[in-house]
Specification:
51% helix; two-stranded antiparallel ribbon
Length: 127
């Protein structure tokens, strides 16, 4: 079972760690106890919208950005959960890579770059 509070806590912890900040610094800025913030980050406590707003302000992160990252994590967790429930895939699945050649990059004539990416992930537009 996927717990939203655990995913939210993981994202909050990553945001804090990306900034190189301690629990103490963020808890002080958000005016929330260090222990409670720690429990939120570990997914042991559900954070209210007011508390999330205070933590986001302390981290200088928009709540919409936080929730978008949580949403992405939730999507991945759901995919992993559904894949685990279905039949195993025989062998590794690798996307087929197509090469796209670009003859001019950022206005530099003569520069040639080859990009390899899954065909369905690349839109090529001729200038």
């Amino acid at each position: 079972m996927i717990l939203l509070r655990r995913l939210l806590g993981d994202v909050l912890r990553r945001q804090r760690q990306r900034q190189g900040r301690t629990l103490r610094e963020v808890s002080s800025s958000a005016r929330v106890s260090l222990g409670y913030l720690s429990e939120v980050e570990r997914g042991q406590k559900e954070a209210s919208s007011e508390l999330l707003s205070a933590i986001c302000d302390a981290l200088d992160v928009r709540m919409s950005e936080l929730m978008r990252e949580v949403s992405d994590e939730l999507s991945l967790a759901e995919l992993a959960e559904s894949a685990a429930a279905s039949e195993p895939v025989p062998g590794p699945v690798r996307p087929m890579l197509n090469s796209v050649s670009v003859t001019s990059v950022a206005g530099v004539p003569g520069e040639r770059v080859t990009i390899k990416a899954p065909a369905e992930a690349v839109d090529v537009v001729a200038a």
